[in-house]
Amino acid sequence: MNSVANLGPWARFKQSDFIYHFRRDKVAMVSFAVFVAFLIAAFFSPLLAPHNPYDLATIDILDSELPPSWLDMGDARFWLGTDVQGRDIFSTILYGSRVSLMIGLGAVALQLLIGIIVGLSAGYFGGRLDNLLMRFADVQLSFSTMMVAIIVSAVFQATLGAEFYGQYAVLMLVVIIGLAEWPQYARTIRATVLAEKKKEYVEAAQVMGFKSGRIMFRHILPNCLSPILVISTVQVANAIMSEAALSFLGLGMPVDQPSLGSLISMGFSYIFSGSWWITAFPGMYLVVLVLVINLLGDWLRDVFNPKLYKG
Known about the structure:
The protein has 15 helices and no strands. By secondary structure, it is mainly alpha-helical. It has one domain: MetI-like fold, CATH 1.10.3720.10. α6 runs parallel beside α10, α7 (127-141) crosses α10 and α13 (225-248) runs parallel beside α14 (260-268).
């Protein structure tokens, strides 16, 4: 026991039950490896992509709708073919996935911020404040996420104008998706707080005269990290799918700013004319990305709940 306590943080982490279960679960290991590969490819896309889809000087409209290089009429310069603007599909997928991941992670960060404040406040203080906040969350949950996102997105575009919205599309989508999904965090954190605030360490902190903010954020919140981590993995996937759906409906990223959703939307009208690769490859990339994130989320849920875990 003492030998374990004397180890450094990294050494203790490598010997933890979390890593032990991770090494025994091949699905989790493969999913994590694929997700890290996608993450690296997305955020290092300027270095890895053979073409820059934002550099108009390198784009030739005569190269539009070229099939993948291994098919007839394909060009060796474009491994996965080109879109209707002559942009390399492989490069636009890398750049587009970076945009989609930025929106997904940013939206989850906003959901987390709002959800933590609302959930902690509702669970800790209770009473009328709890009823007010939870009824507000219930009203929002009664509408589908996409309905809320579509309404807010349409209002933003009508109020600010399409040109202004296009310039700040990433920030707008982070706000739209973040505002549509925060009740998931709030309800989960509130349920955890209701269980935690009855424990002795909270009562001891109250007796010692600690302020409510300190008790909530420094004592109760760390014990809510397990459900927060599980929800976050699922919510990242949901946020990426929401961005793709909004972009497909024309309420997300503009066509000239590649994201996975805008790429799928742009190529959808050409899929029956023979240019199937414009939509197919971004769509497959999106499906695999969301799948590995959801698999990691399911594994985390099982690991943090010993009653469910059978690894």
